[in-house]
Amino acid sequence: MTSRSKTFSLFDREIAKQALWDALKKLTPQQQMKNPVMFVVWIGSILTTILFFQALGGHGEAPIGFILAITLWLWFTVLFANFAEALAEGRSKAQAASLRAAKKTVLAKKLREPRYGAQLDSVPGTDLRRGDVVLMEAGDMIPADGEVIEGVASVNESAITGESAPVIRESGGDFNAVTGGTTVLSDWLVVRVTVNPGEAFIDRMIAMVEGAKRQKTPNEIALTILLVAMTIIFLLATVTLLPFSLYSVEVAKAGQPVTITVLVALLVCLIPTTIGGLLSAIGVAGMGRMMQKNVIATSGRAVEAAGDVDVLLLDKTGTITLGNRQANQFHPASGVTERELADAAQLASLADETPEGRSIVVLAKQKFELRERNIHELGATFVPFTAHTRMSGVNLDARQIRKGASDSIRDHVKSLGGDFPHDVQTLVDDAARRGSTPLVVADGTKVLGVVELKDIVKGGIKERFAELRRMGIKTIMITGDNRLTAAAIAAEAGVDDFLAEATPEAKLKLIREHQSQGRLVAMTGDGTNDAPALAQADVAVAMNTGTQAAKEAGNMVDLDSNPTKLIEIVETGKQMLMTRGALTTFSIANDVAKYFAIIPAAFVTTYPALAALNVMHLATPASAILSAVIFNALIIVALIPLALKGVKYRPVGAEVLLRNNLLIYGVGGIIVPFIGIKLIDMILVTFGWV
Amino acid sequence: MSANGLLQIALFLGVLLALTKPLGWYMARVYEGKLPAFVRWMAPAENLFYRLCGVNREEEMRWTRYAFAVLWFSLLGVLAVYAMQRLQGLLPLNPQHFGAISPDSSFNTTLSFVTNTNWQGYVGESTMSYLTQMVALAVQNFFSAASGMAVLVALIRGLARHSAETIGNFWVDMTRSIVYILLPLSVLLALVLVSQGVVQNFSEYKSVPLVDGVSYDQPKLDAAGNPMKDATGNPVTEKMTVKEQTIALGPVASQEAIKELGTNGGGFFNANSAHPFENPTPLTNFLEMLAIFLIPAALCYTFGSMVGDTRQGWAILAAMTVLFAGFLAVAEISEQQGNPAFAALGVDQTASATQPGGNMEGKETRFGIVNSALFATVTTAASCGAVNSMHDSFMPLGGLVPLAQIQLGEVVFGGVGSGLYVMLIYAVIAVFIAGLMIGRTPEYLGKKIEVFDIKMASLVILIPPLIILGGTALAVMLDAGKSSIFNPGAHGFSEVLYAFTSAVGNNGSAFAGISANTPFYNTALGFSAWFGRFWLMIPVLALAGSLAAKKRIPEGAGTMHTHTPIFVGLLIGTVILVGALTFVPALGLGPIVEHLTMIGAH
After folding, report:
1. Which residues does the record give as ATP binding sites (chain A) (predicted)?
2. Is B33 exposed, middle or buried (CB count within 10 Å of its CB: 0-12, 13-18, 19+)?
3. Within a 10 A sphere around the Cβ of B560, how many other Cβ atoms?
4. What is the Rg, in whole angstroms, of the alpha carbon atoms belonging to chain B?
């Protein structure tokens, strides 16, 4: 993984300053109405402000200092919630700004005809439309997303990925996509633009990260509904307290009816302001965390869905195994020494530039100190691999050294009148059973033995899969290999299941099967042939190195092109849900203590016996109510870091997770406010503020 | 509490839990249409109903149609019960020649019985003819109970089915509830009650001369039926002297059985189960309490069985039982401790071989403290409302128990069907909050809880407090509401709060002490009962329809189990925090301040 300067400390001074200002700007009714819980607090603040001015005029329903203190702290409550949201947005905007820096206006060389060498017009990059064809040469910044239709070039994509090593982009195949804002380092490309202005990948990224296009996720909407229902219930519980209090005063013939100020204070303390104030910050921060992990999600919904993933489909090559097979063993036929086999294999591979070929040369050197020889000095001619012969090798003097799949070599040897020995066939079968690819080496009619090419499973991947299993996610490896090979690699890598000889149709079918059983399927992919399956999957992570088709089909793009990134995506999705659940539980649990603070304080003049409920021994009714309101406001600030960072997820199983979080946020939520309110009350009394 | 008392409570819970599984299993078979062999002989009766009413038993309903059927059926019940009360004077089986009942009282009684509330503003033995008792009221006892069970079964199907559009057939569910469950159990219980001395006849009331005349004060009512008050606001009373007692009779046993089994609670007599002809012996008392809890408890097993995992049912039952045990302990202890005001008067409240001790005000000596407090806790935990002692005379905390249990939403066992369906709503909310905490979209029994489901669940928890608190506020603001209160002060407030709580919770028990048979209370409480019943049923059925349509997610390693002790604890916590926090301020001005004032004064 690359690390970029995209993480910002939690309370970056600049961002915090801007957020404070934004918090004030968010006080408009239009902004407040988006958050029903905080809207109630906002209305309450306005109400007590009016009461304060009424008191200034000499008709106060309560001591003017008390009304003022309550009013101020209610406004603080609103501002703190605004600040949390502004802070989350500010952090995301800062990330977006670093992206936007990449989006400079450049002049593009527009081609009149879609071929290299056609006549050029120089136009601003921002004017390019879908379907335009442009030429890019070394040093040019690519003006818009597109696909290469001609040429090969190395491209620096660090502006998007943070990866400084250049990547190759060429026409056809899986590496034909280029992204706006990246730079061509060498050679030239003819690119067909695939997006209109403003739709480019980078534009969408910026919009997402800034939160401008942030839509509430389904779980967020459901939670908001529950919070609104609770707010209405508590609104009712407080509003009806006025007639109850009037009646009680009437019949007890003692005390004063409860004041509007106290009722507003009680209401604000009871409604779930903690979660209500932090809810949108949690969502914005979740998207921001994805960005820090170099993943761009097209919607918050996708991130949240990632938390629910049951099944994960992974491509074998490049994900579970290192991209290429490597030679790791020579198995000589009877009567042949291993060194003879290694020597012949090395000769056959000298001119073979494929990774498999290179690995044979490397292995021969490691095992027998066989130096690389120059094929031209030897006077050998290279026989390249063709689809027809399915072999490669060299002709050296009279020797015909060939290597290839066992069937091809068998045919080759037989055509020369030779014999394919039985023991070599056994070696071939053994290797295949181990999940390796056997290459048979023959010198003329003599079969020398087998080179075993092995898929190298990535280091640490087994542990990652074990972690996924603990998260409750089933991993399925997808490969074009035969069942035997696939099974062996699956066992070595520790995946739960595999799909061998996979075709795009088979992948699609597998995903649909799991979905019809109610499971949520995630998939990572990069190729154009992955696109249908990516489109079908619930969570589809396209590699940034992949084709445009794959990126369009996915709902997330991993800029690092790291297929196991999905684990982190899942974690982020889960964190978003957990943070909301934890703060909701905490918020509701807090109400117990607030009742003990406010109820006796509000009615003790009517029923002195209620003083017995003042279990915290708060100094006076005014200090009790004020302490509860202050606690309620400060707890929002105290929990901003948690909202932005998210509750930590550990794959320990649902039961343990539930128990731990219930203890921390449920039981803790009951206890903490008792301590907090008492402390605030003591401070208020110590400084003589009440 | 004495060892004997504990033994009685243990015996009650033991017998109840022992009957849960067999009855629950049986009901699951009935609702799934796989009748056990020993009741197949009753099938022709069931089929006869379908033929008579033109019901196609194979036809399945979407939730909207199901809800419409429930409402339609209840509306018919309303019309029939109202008409019978208003036309009572013209109808037979009326040996005491009772005339028509007033429009507002008829309205109240009608809504009260159709909604399974059985709040009784009237005095049964001096207003209702035998025909009205049997055909109007007792029939509704069956129908209202059966419709509650039907709605529950529909919700269970919603959880059990997947990718389905329908949730069953209301007519079939209701018919089966009556034919196979409520009727046989009622017949059985009625026979036992008769053997113990509960009356069952159609004869006229008997008059017997008293050895000594009795004098008492009675509140004087004005022309409108409202209690009159003097210039200082105190109720005006008139002195009455009685030399002769009329013994009321009637077909009591048949109504008594369904009163308990259907968690209806409407007594044949005004004194309800405190009356010796309704509840003559400790054995009948035991059986009546058992009958109240029997079906609600067994339905938990039915639920588990129908969703294919009986552990789910046991978990819900465990949560209910723990809540019940807690409330029972508070009631028993506060009643047994007695009243410090009595102690100051020199009344001996110590338990001994000859007396139960404790606060015996308003309690029957044949039941004592333990069985009175137990009955009160049972009848308000379930939304029954039958009483064998006067809740108004309980200690403040003893009286808080019935009040709080109803305010939780009648989920501690609750009414037949209605208790469990509201408890399942709480489970959905618990799952939603806790499910978020484990980082997954919450799911209950493999069903994802999404926006629509939370909307419906929110309605179910929102509506009862809305009506209870709103109604109580209205009553203490209006003269029409305040003039009925005989005990001004915190206790009077508790009485009004109790009345609305009882109506909305479809419980029907009362803190006496307010004269509720006034146009204001008859109307307000009638509407409260109606909304408390059907405004919950509709969202519950909507939820059932939504759940039925969902796919079922197979259980995986990341699934939160809903049968574990943690979940039981979470469910209890949700019921208490979400259900009770709403009412804390109101309770604070009622029973809590009464209690604090009492201990402060003594």
Report:
1. 352, 356, 385-392, 403
2. exposed
3. 23
4. 24
C-alpha distances (whole Å) from A56 to each of A60, A70, A580 are: 7, 15, 41
Percent of all residues in chain B with a pLDDT value above 90, rounded to a whole number:
76
The model's confidence at residue A9, banded by pLDDT at 50, 70 and 90, is: low
> Per-residue pLDDT for A158 more than 70?
no
Contact A609 B560 (CB under 8 A): no
How many Cα atoms sit within 13 Å of A46 on the Cβ side? 9
A642 touches chain B (CB under 8 A): no
Burial level of B343, CB count in 10 A (0-12/13-18/19+)? middle
Average pLDDT over chain A, rounded to whole? 85
d(CA A152, CA A578): 47
pLDDT digits (tens, 9 = 90+) for B434-470: 888 988 889 999 999 999 999 999 999 999 999 999 9
Alpha carbons A316 and A319: distance in angstroms, whole number: 5
Burial A473-502 (b: 16+ CB within 10 A, else e): bbbbbbbebeeebbbbbbebbbbeebbbeb
Tell me what percent of the residues of chain B surpass a pLDDT of 70.
100
User: Which candidate in B432, B437, B472 is best for mutational testing of the A interface (most A CBs within 10 A)?
Assistant: B437
Query: Is the per-residue pLDDT at A105 higher than 80?
Result: no
Mean pLDDT of chain B: 92
> Which 102-121 residues of chain A touch chain B by CB within 8 A?
none
- CB within 8 Å: A469 and B433: no
Question: Hey, which residues does A395 pair with through a beta bridge?
Answer: A381, A400
Whether residue A315 lies in the annotated active site: yes
pLDDT digits (tens, 9 = 90+) for B133-191: 999 999 999 999 999 999 999 999 999 999 999 999 999 999 999 999 999 999 999 99
Task: Provide the 3-class DSSP secondary structure of residue A160.
Answer: helix
Q: Is A34 helix (H, G, I), strand (E, B) or coil?
A: coil
Greatest C-alpha distance within chain A: 122
End-to-end CA distance of chain B: 22
Greater confidence, A387 or A283?
Answer: A283
Pairing of strands B443-444, B447-448: antiparallel
Q: Which residues contact B422 (CB under 8 A, 6 or more apart)?
A: B409, B410, B411, B414, B460, B536, B540
Largest CA distance in chain B: 77
Which domains are seen in chain A, by residue range?
A: 13-95+210-292+571-687 (no CATH), 129-196 (2.70.150.10), 295-320+458-559 (3.40.50.1000), 322-456 (3.40.1110.10)
What is the DSSP code string of A595-663?
A: HHHHHHHHHTTT-GGGGGG-TT--SSHHHHHHHHHHHHHHHHHHHHHHHHH-PPP--S-HHHHHHHHII
Query: Region A182-210: what's the mean pLDDT?
Result: 74
Residues of B with Cβ-Cβ distance to A587 under 8 angstroms: none
Annotated binding site of A: 352, 356, 385-392, 403, 526, 530
pLDDT of residue A2: 37
CB A441 within 8 A of CB A348: yes
Q: Are A148 and A547 in contact, with CB atoms under 8 Å apart?
A: no
Contacts of A459 (CB under 8 A, 6+ apart): none
Mean pLDDT to the nearest integer, B16-27:
97
* Cα A520 to Cα A305: distance, rounded to the nearest angstrom: 8
